[in-house]
Design a protein that fits this description.
Length: about 200
């Protein structure tokens, strides 16, 4: 699906024509440069590689410097491949937030906030073992029993336990575009999107 690479600016709220307060996320979407056009003949599939956000030249490897130079652009920080663009694109083309229209719906993919190692109450929403009665002590957030002892004498695969939480690739579908501000390359969508402020997002039509 055609789309852009963006960066999460933060959240705000706007009032609708009916006077409702709508929470929305502000995203800096584009401009994105076409740095590679893949075809069935050369790559075995068709796709367009987009690049977004400036990167220091000293932090860019020599092969990537040549890759960006071929497209006639400066080094970029984020590269993403997207498929099924309606228009024919070539190296060096620039895509802006104008490809989105207000009151349409988009899908947004990002990396969710990492929360480190967490227990079962935060990670899976467990309720704990119960009240502090019948001699229990410090058991309110404990996971409880993990399985049989004599049989099968192991913990089943997929058992919901404590562990690393967050930092996953998450896709939120059907977010309504509230407003497009082309002069500032900004996109306002209803609701929240994954990731912290400043994180990269993939916005698909």
């Amino acid at each position: 699906m055609p789309g852009l690479i963006g960066k999460k600016i933060g959240m705000t709220s706007v009032f609708s024509a009916e006077g409702k307060n709508i929470p929305c996320t502000v995203i800096e979407a584009g401009p994105c440069i076409v740095t590679q056009v893949k075809s069935n003949e050369t790559d075995g599939y068709e796709a367009v590689q987009l690049a977004f956000d400036e990167k220091r030249e000293k932090s860019t490897t020599n092969p990537m410097k040549g890759h960006f130079k071929k497209a006639g652009t400066t080094p970029k920080a984020k590269l993403v491949e997207l498929k099924d663009f309606e228009q024919e694109l070539k190296l060096g083309d620039v895509l802006t937030v104008d490809i989105f229209d207000e009151d349409t719906f988009v899908d947004i993919t990002g990396i969710s906030k990492g929360k480190g190692f967490q227990g079962v109450v935060k990670r899976h929403g467990f309720g704990g073992v119960g009240d502090q009665t019948h001699g229990q002590h410090n058991r309110l957030r404990a996971p409880g029993s993990l399985g049989g002892s004599s049989f099968p004498s192991r913990v089943f695969k997929g058992m919901r336990m404590a562990g690393r939480t967050g930092g996953d690739r998450v896709k939120v579908e059907n977010l309504r575009v509230i407003k497009v501000i082309p002069e500032n390359n900004l996109l306002m969508v209803k609701g929240s999107v994954p990731g912290p402020k400043g994180s990269y997002l993939i916005i698909e039509k």
